């Protein structure tokens, strides 16, 4: 079957192909390294001639996220992608979408910062992605792919979760996953929903008052404090439900492990190599890879702490996820962090040396 | 004579548009917003687009426009309404999509979104209320504040050395290849209201005919911000605003497209 063909492509290209195949209605983006291949691939594929998907290059990331906001208001499956500095510009729109409870997909192919930083890979937007990022009390659903295959698979998953909870979802990748070429089986084609289906599935959407229904209003504004608190509490209750139901993670060689590495995305791939090397030297170490960074696998990390003597948080940043691990572990075992900065990827051997010297 | 008898005998000369609901408006007495809301409502109704309209409200005095006109509304972030409208129209091409924005929203924080949406020839209409002041936040200087005009942030009058010049966004819009119809109107007299209504209708029709983007500026009063009675504000507008912001069509290529 053509759909099951194995192809070789970049992570960024996989995002674009997966978007077309999963029935995405619109992509709005702005070029920035190292994610420009998403927009380039879409422009080259011309999905507006096949599936009818809208592809538009905006004048800025501020505009592209607000195009996503507008499209999401109408119940359409819409997305954008960018890299760290561009995602900083998008925080206003993301906050509005979280406040208005809208489904959408934002892809961040992270590069090093702060500021203009570097175009090399980094995981230093963990805080921004998982702790709100913009203003106000909110969360995104954050998925962390560790392969080109997961870049392809998480597009549909992110849309599914975003629509299930009427909440923006983010794929938090990095420059390495975005740029590397790997084997991938693209998801099968799924038709875009018809306008009738959207109107039926999203009775809240601003589709026009078809059938003479009452006006739909999408807003995050409520000036009456007592009303605004009710809205906030409802959104918080939704987050508690997501935390209870949507945690995803992978375990690797943890059964007999005396030490554990917790790592996501590219860092998790490095961790697996380090574990192979360490085990050949008699060090029993395994990996817990959070796939959802928010909701974070807090229970799983806590339970891990009862089975191992120490945990290493391996991140390509100065130590961000390590805070969530420590909150989960509550001091039961030592939790250390190791990371490289400035766009440098940790070497598996240096991770093994860190394991040896730390525990 | 009862209401029904008047309607039956065909003597009805005026009625509130059905789309304009009974929610008490938060606008100040004498403000132009109420009249423009009425015109927009009338035009949507007369075009038979009630069930196919998606409107975008701004941040500014018209932030609550969605409370008064019974169509679907999206409430944008400050200045971003044209970006929302662009995506909405492209995703729902047979819908009537318009934004309703003030001068701070459109001509200052949203300049990029405005110019690029217009120049992409998005088939939308932008209704632009220009009262030369930030009304909602309490009367601060706007990009369109006239030289010499006093506001909370230029209490001694706007001067070039400190604040630069007022911006004529509508003139800029008329130079853009993407725009189809660009006009500047007012609603201070019955004749002006009739002209403004025709302009809104023309803009909405062009947008539905796929002729490109349309900008209808309404030079307006802000009697609270200007600290004038409604009557005096109208007079001041005629004497000062119209001298700088000339009324009339700046561009109409609808017939050529």
How do the helices and strands line up, and which of them pair or pack?
The complex is a heterodimer of chains A (359) and B (257).
Chain A: E1 6-10, H1 11-21, E2 26-29, H2 37-45, E3 54-57, H3 61-73, E4 78-82, H4 84-89, H5 91-99, E5 104-110, H6 126-130, E6 141-143, H7 148-165, E7 168-174, H8 175-179, E8 181-185, H9 195-201, E9 217-218, H10 225-245, E10 249-252, E11 259-262, H11 265-280, E12 285-290, E13 292-294, H12 298-305, E14 310-314, H13 321-329, E15 335-338, H14 348-358
Helix pairs in contact in A: 1-2, 1-7, 3-5, 11-14, 12-13
Chain B: H1 3-8, H2 33-46, E1 53-57, E2 72-75, H3 81-91, E3 96-102, H4 103-109, H5 111-119, E4 125-130, E5 133-134, E6 140-141, H6 160-163, H7 169-174, E7 179-186, H8 190-208, E8 213-219, H9 223-226, H10 230-244, E9 248-252
Helix pairs in contact in B: 2-8, 3-5, 4-5
Describe the structure.
The complex is a heterodimer of chains A (359) and B (257). With 359 residues, chain A is of the alpha/beta class. Chain A folds into two domains: 6-195, 3-Layer(aba) Sandwich (Rossmann fold); 249-358, 3-Layer(aba) Sandwich (Rossmann fold). Chain A has 14 helices and 15 strands. Chain A has a seven-stranded mixed sheet with strand order 3-2-4-5-7-6-13, sandwiched between helices. In chain A, helix 1 (11-21) packs across helix 7 and helix 12 (298-305) packs across helix 13 (321-329). The mean pLDDT of chain A is 97. By secondary structure, chain B is α/β, with parallel strands linked by helices. Chain B has one domain (27-256): Thiamin diphosphate (ThDP)-binding fold, Pyr/PP domains (Rossmann fold, 3-Layer(aba) Sandwich). Chain B has ten helices and nine strands. A seven-stranded mixed sheet of chain B has the order 2-1-3-4-8-7-9, with helices on both faces. In chain B, strands 5-6 form a two-stranded antiparallel ribbon. In chain B, helix 8 (190-208) links the parallel strand 7 and strand 8 (213-219). In chain B, helix 2 (33-46) packs across helix 8, helix 3 (81-91) packs parallel to helix 5 (111-119) and helix 4 packs across helix 5. The chains are: A alpha/beta (359), B alpha/beta (257). The interface between A and B is large, with 41 and 30 residues.
